[in-house]
Amino acid sequence: MAAPILRTKRLILKALEEKDADRLFAYRSDPEVYRYKGWKPRLRAEAVDFIRRNTVEFDRPGTWFQLGIYDRDSLELVGDAGLHFLEPEGLQVEIGYTIAPPHQRQGLAGEAVREVIGYLFRVMRKHRIIASVDPENAASLALAESLGLRREGHFRKSVWNGDYWEDDVIYAILAEEWSGTSGAIPGATDHSSGPTEGGGGPG
């Protein structure tokens, strides 16, 4: 299946491209960004490999797919969103996101994630969407709750980050809950499809 191209009032979301490697590496290698992430690149080549691995096939159970989040006017890469299509049936999706520091606190994460969730439920007919959040990441906790995701569990020292064990908070929402509480997605203008380019990784 081809990865979609999603448009909101301020953003375009589509498959990451190798030409985005410099920009992706610039913000993903920032310690203030990767402190809450499983992927912590140290070399530009890792960003290239990340894009290649995580844009291979959209909607394949057991894989991640990484969408770039672009400013709609300038087409600058301002962040990325990872979709993990869970096995075995692929009807559940884990979602993660990253916004580059200069573009944080502008509501872009909420705008992007709301559009992605709406597409997964309304167009792809997914059953359940989950988010795995570091309990110290207050902004992501607030975002999940603002979107109507339900806090389902807090797992103590369940994630190894390469240096030590961290807690993990799981949020989730069902398709019927989204349609019943979220309604139309603000800022959404179309759901045109585009070519797939690449493969998956942690958001």
Task: Quickly list its features.
203 residues, Aminopeptidase, 8-stranded mixed β-sheet, 8 strands, globular, disordered C terminus
Low-pLDDT segments? 180-201
The value of Rg in angstroms is 16 Å
Oligomer: single chain
Largest sheet: 8 strands, mixed
Write down the secondary-structure element order: EEHHHEEEHEHEEH
Structural class: alpha+beta
What is the total domain count?
Answer: 1
Q: Count of DSSP E strands?
A: 8
What percentage of residues falls in helices of 4 or more residues? 25-40%
Quote the CATH topology.
Answer: Aminopeptidase
CATH class: Alpha Beta
Strand line-up across the major sheet: 1-2-3-4-5-6-8-7
Average the pLDDT over all residues and give the rounded result.
Answer: 87
Morphology call = globular
In DSSP terms (H or I, runs of 4 or more residues), the helix count works out at: 6
Distance between the termini: 20 Å
Beta fraction = 25-35%
CATH superfamily: Gcn5-related N-acetyltransferase (GNAT)
Organism: Hydrogenispora ethanolica
Pfam families: Acetyltransf_3
Protein name: RimJ/RimL family protein N-acetyltransferase
Keywords: Transferase
